[in-house]
Amino acid sequence: MTNINEFIAGWKSHRNVLHDMLTDVTTEQLSYKPWEKGMSLAGLVLHITGAMDMFAKTVQNGVYTPGAKPAMPATIEELKSVVATATEQTEAVLRSLTPEQLAAPIDFFGNSLPGVVLLQNAKDHEIHHKGQLFVYLRLVGVEKLPFFVSKG
């Protein structure tokens, strides 16, 4: 990553798809779990958005900064609103990061990583879980899904 704007553009090409993936999801499908101990569909979406926020704030603060746990949304409209708000807030944190914060080493569960590497791990984490969400959506019968990245 050369600069934070390039990172944000790459991240948003994936995050925008998360928004699109929820287009045909119904409120009744939010509680779906593919196995007993798995996250629910809504829980997985909240994990995706919350994790990126946690990583961004960790880089911003220079130390592990746990994210807030939002309440489980009761409707798909609430979930879409949470995703939109979380995306805006995380993007604002990312845009505020300085070159010094991106270069600074951060202790993250026993690993010392520069902020920029931690953010790349965060994006990879989001991509991984977005892939899981594609499977969840197929399992609940959603037939029309977007491409895995958006153009902008």
UniProtKB/TrEMBL annotation:
InterPro entries: DinB (IPR007837), DinB/YfiT-like (IPR034660). Coiled coil: none annotated. Keywords: Metal-binding. Gene3D superfamilies: dinb family like domain (1.20.120.450). The keyword Metal-binding applies. It holds the Pfam family DinB. Belongs to the DinB family. This is Damage-inducible protein DinB. It comes from Paenibacillus glycanilyticus.
